[in-house]
Amino acid sequence: MENCAVFAGLHPIPPNQLLGPSRSALKLLPPFFTEKTHLFSLPLKLQKQSHFALGTTSNNNGTTSRVASPTSNVTTELADIDWDNLGFGFMSTDYMYVMKCSQGENFTKGELQRFGNIELSPSAGILNYGQGLFEGLKAYRKHDGKILLFRPEENGLRLRMGAERMCMPSPTVEQFVEAVNVTVLANKRWIPPPGKGSLYIRPLLMGSGAVLGLAPAPEYTFLIYVSPVGNYFKEGLAPINLIVETDMHRATPGGTGGVKTIGNYAAVLKAQSAAKAKGYSDVLYLDSVHKRYLEEVSSCNVFLVKGNVISTPAIKGTILPGITRKSILDVALSQGFQVEERSVSVDELLDADEVFCTGTAVVVSPVGSITYQGKRVTYGADGVGRVSQQLYSALTSLQMGISEDKMDWIVELK
Ligand code: COI
C-alpha cells in the first residue's frame, strides 16, 4: 500500500507527517487545509450533482465544515493498492470527518481530520453502556470519473430514528449527507476503479462524554471513516450457506433490533463464530417469541422467492429496516414481481425456489443452502438463482451508474 498520502493529486505528504489528527499535523497539510476555515453549502435537496469549491458559505442549518475543496480540473490519483483483491476488511484512508455536540444541543460544526485514532474517556457512554449507532453506505466510481452515492439521505434518516431510540442527538439529514460528501471527496483516491469494488462509508454516532451512573452521555461525537471494499462474504458472489439459530436471538420485541445500534452486532458474534467454525457462512435468526418466524441474518435481511412472489419478514421493531431491502422491494415490483412483507415461517424455507440476502455490505447475496435442526435444504444447482441474479444486476447497475436512475436514488459527486 502506498504510504504517502496525495490528496487530489496535489502536495504529497511525507510519511512521517501522516499520523494523527493533531493540530500540528493539520499545519502540515496542503494549503487548503491550513488554519483558514473553508466553508461551503449544499442545496437542501441533495439528490443530484454537488460541486465543491473553495469559498466561504454556510448552509441553512448554520452547519460549517472545514474541508478540502476538490475541484473538477484536478486529477485524482488512485491509491497504490491491489484493487483486484479487495475483500471486506478495514484499510485506513486519508481523512475522517468529526463533529461533536453536547447533550441537549444540536450538531453545528464538523471538520475533516487526518484519519487516526480518537481519544475517549474510559468512562465514555459508548464504552460503558453501548450508547452508539453506526451506518453503512457506499460510493462507486464510474468510468467517466463521476462518483456516485446510493440513497445517502436514507442512511441519514435511519440514523435519526436510531438516535431517538438511543437518547442521542443526531445530525440533520442534510448535515449527514454533507458530511458523507466531503469525506468521500477527501478520500477520493481510495474509491476503487469501476468494477473493482466500492468505498464503504461508515458513519458512527456515539456517546463520547464521560458517565458513571447509567444515563445518556453529556457529549456526542459523529464521525465518518471510509475504507475501500470488495465482496463481503469470502464466497464472493457465489451462494452462501446459512444455519438457522434456534437458541440465541438477535432481538426481542420492544428492544433495539430495529435500529443500527452497535450492541445488536456484538450480540450475534457468538452464534456467528460457532456457525463459521462449522463451515457455514453466517446465521439466520428466528423471532424470540414463537421461535418460528424468520428475522434476519447477522449482517443482512433475508428474502424468499416462490414463483413470481418475493417475500421478506415485515419490519416490526426487531428487524433492521435495510435500505437495500427497501430498494430491492421497489426494484422487484418494477420488474413485475409480487412482493410481500409479512411473517415468513421457517417452514417456508423448505418450499422456496430461491433465498437471498440483502444489505449494503452484502448487496444481494444468493443463498445456496440453509440448515435447520440438522436438515439441509439446498437451492439451485450450485448456481445463482435466476431471480437473485436479475435483482443483483438491476440494483448494481443502478448503483454503479450503468443503468438509468429512474428512481432518482443516485447522488452524483464530482
Ligand atoms: C452494512 O451492510 O452496511 C452493515 O452495516 C452490516 C455490517 C455488519 C457490515
From TrEMBL:
Pfam families attached to this UniProt entry: Aminotran_4
Molecular function GO labels: L-isoleucine-2-oxoglutarate transaminase activity; L-leucine-2-oxoglutarate transaminase activity; L-valine-2-oxoglutarate transaminase activity
N6-(pyridoxal phosphate)lysine: residues carrying this PTM: K260
EC number(s) per entry: 2.6.1.42
Catalytically driven reaction(s): L-leucine + 2-oxoglutarate = 4-methyl-2-oxopentanoate + L-glutamate; L-isoleucine + 2-oxoglutarate = (S)-3-methyl-2-oxopentanoate + L-glutamate; L-valine + 2-oxoglutarate = 3-methyl-2-oxobutanoate + L-glutamate
The family this protein is said to belong to: Belongs to the class-IV pyridoxal-phosphate-dependent aminotransferase family.
Keywords: Amino-acid biosynthesis, Aminotransferase, Branched-chain amino acid biosynthesis, Pyridoxal phosphate, Transferase
Source taxonomy: Eukaryota, Viridiplantae, Streptophyta, Embryophyta, Tracheophyta
Stated name of the protein: Branched-chain-amino-acid aminotransferase
Superkingdom classification of source: Eukaryota
GO biological process, one term: amino acid biosynthetic process
UniProt-listed NCBIfam families: ilvE_II, PRK13357.1
Cellular-component GO terms for this entry: chloroplast
Listed cofactors: pyridoxal 5'-phosphate
Enzyme class: transferase
